[in-house]
Amino acid sequence: MRILIIANSKVVFGKELQLELNNKGFDVSLLDFEFLTMYDKNYNENTTFSELFRKYKSIPKFSMFFRMIYIKKVIQENKFDIINIHISRWFYLIILPWLLKQKLIITFYGSDFYRTSSFIKNIQKLLYKKAHVITFTNPLTKKSFIEYYKGFENKSYVCRFGLKTLDFIDKNRDISKKVLRELLGYDLEKIIVTCGYNSTKEQQHGKIVENILKLPKDLLERIQFIFPMTYGDSVHKEKIKDILNQTNLDYIVLEEFLYGDNNANIKLASDIMINILETDSFSGSMQEFLYANNIIITGGWLPYEVFDNAGIQYVKINDVNELYLELKKVIDSDIKTFDTSKNKNIISKLSLWSNTIESWVDAYTK
Q: pTM here?
């Protein structure tokens, strides 16, 4: 069975799903949505369409049209049995007749449903009517989708992404924090607080910094702040770097894309992770920090019922402006006494690929 996954290759989900499905005996190619680079089942890189698309990529408004035309060409020139679109976009309606020549699976990450306007949601309804299978990363997003559209129950499934980084965290778990921090260039003695996990504005970095600056000076002197900005919005990243540059905070901005050991090590080297996204679905990065025994401070408005029901231990705030108070409380109480012992086993059951891949196999073979 030949499968094409269309996803951003800089986000690990599509890349790891390709790997796991290939290990199961499928023939899976990955088409990078952003640049249109193709990776075949042996992970060989084909830049034919990315080179053609390059001259159109920077044209405002029209670039998406040309992207769709080239995606159509990829589909026409290959005999795929299944097309799996990651992140729903109305632009796919332009090439819907070609998508439907194969089995069409649409995979929601979460924000692509929650952050989409009602107008666009209504336009996209035809896409969902024609899709054979629709997948979601958690039951709540599936429920919200079905309540909004009505009548899609029979084609909607929960398929969680596994997290390959968990394997790397286990591999490096016995390395001391001091050694890991030396490798990363972190301070060896201070409390490490990681702020968000990418450079999109939805991470609310500006509000995080506003809260940090409200902390007492003596507390700030004990903390080094890490801002992972290895992918996302480059304009927003530069804005936050400018804001940080005007403070006296001890901080590091991570800009090079991280995978494998490096991605695991930033989780293991950290003590506290702040996750106050505007909206989310089933945050993979937050799970990795939980698995690495970080204390998580997150927004009570985020749809994390799966974590709550499973018994995950973290700190919730109901308002962004409470962040500095909770951060101070956690540090003042001595972070070593904060119990995160249950989290590792819970995340293991939820998100090791060995525990999640069969739901994807089921979706592809329905």
A: 0.79
